[in-house]
Design goal:
It is built from eight helices and no strands. By secondary structure, the protein is mostly helical. It is rod-shaped and about 95 Å long. Helix 1 runs antiparallel to helix 8, helix 3 packs antiparallel against helix 4 and helix 4 runs antiparallel to helix 8.
Length: 249
């Protein structure tokens, strides 16, 4: 361990470098604590989304399980974040060069993993994303199959629960020469809902995953900072060892 035997008559240059190392490693320690807290938050949010009563059932009925692909990726990444944060704290405090190199590698891996997960989540939960054509296909299929009681019930549940009408709006029913169902109307005003279920469902999903994607991207940024600071710490530790050897000689 590089910190062993300090303070035994070493020169001022080594002493100054030692104080810089002290500052870097405890800053890195604090960043890892924050990263661990982010990991816990991400893990909790993923579990909430996956096991929220009714939500999972809705996604299964509407055949939108692709939405969960990014959630599962992020869930795995959050477990990695929580474990690796401890490695970062230990390697920084010990000033162990080998562990620090390993920590840098894990930060790069978590950065890539988290970025991929965030991109997939956003691609299946935001406006003009890949989820909207999937929602539209399901809603139109339900509208075109009114004779099937299950289809009617699912469409009624979606339109009443979210406050929407058709895929893109009330005109969808008129274009299909179908009467406007009562669940398409506001129970207070009696007016038809302006927005279709595609937009309303997308905005609903955005609200659930917006914070999650934001925290994941913030964690990715911390991973980059941790990797850079670890590299700086490695160089400082090596320089301190070299200067200590020169001074003793």
């Amino acid at each position: 361990m590089a910190g062993a035997g300090r303070g035994d008559g070493q020169g001022p240059a080594v002493g100054k470098l030692e104080s810089q190392i002290y500052c870097i490693k405890y800053t890195l320690f604090c960043f890892n604590v924050v990263l661990w807290l982010f990991g816990v938050s991400i893990f909790a949010l993923c579990l909430w989304i996956c096991f929220e009563p009714g939500f999972n059932e809705w996604m299964r009925i509407l055949e939108l399980q692709k939405y969960f692909i990014g959630i599962y990726i992020i869930l795995i990444a959050s477990l990695g974040i929580m474990v690796v944060a401890f490695l970062g704290c230990g390697s920084a405090l010990m000033e162990n060069v080998v562990l620090l190199y390993g920590f840098i590698a894990t930060q790069i891996a978590l950065f890539v993993f988290g970025l991929v997960g965030a991109c997939v989540v956003l691609d299946f939960s935001t406006y003009d994303s890949s989820i909207q054509p999937l929602i539209k296909d399901v809603i139109l299929r339900l509208m075109n199959n009114p004779q099937h009681e299950g289809s009617r019930e699912i469409l009624r549940m979606v339109q009443e629960g979210i406050g929407c009408c058709g895929a893109d709006g009330p005109m969808d029913f008129l274009n299909l020469n179908k009467p406007l169902p009562s669940e398409c109307r506001d129970s207070v005003t009696g007016n038809a809902y302006f927005h279709g279920c595609v937009d309303e469902l997308t905005w609903y999903l955005e609200g659930k995953t917006g914070w999650l994607a934001g925290i994941v991207l913030a964690s990715c940024m911390i991973c980059v900072v941790n990797a850079v600071m670890s590299l700086v710490l490695i160089q400082a530790v090596k320089k301190e060892e070299d200067e200590a050897i020169v001074y003793k000689n």
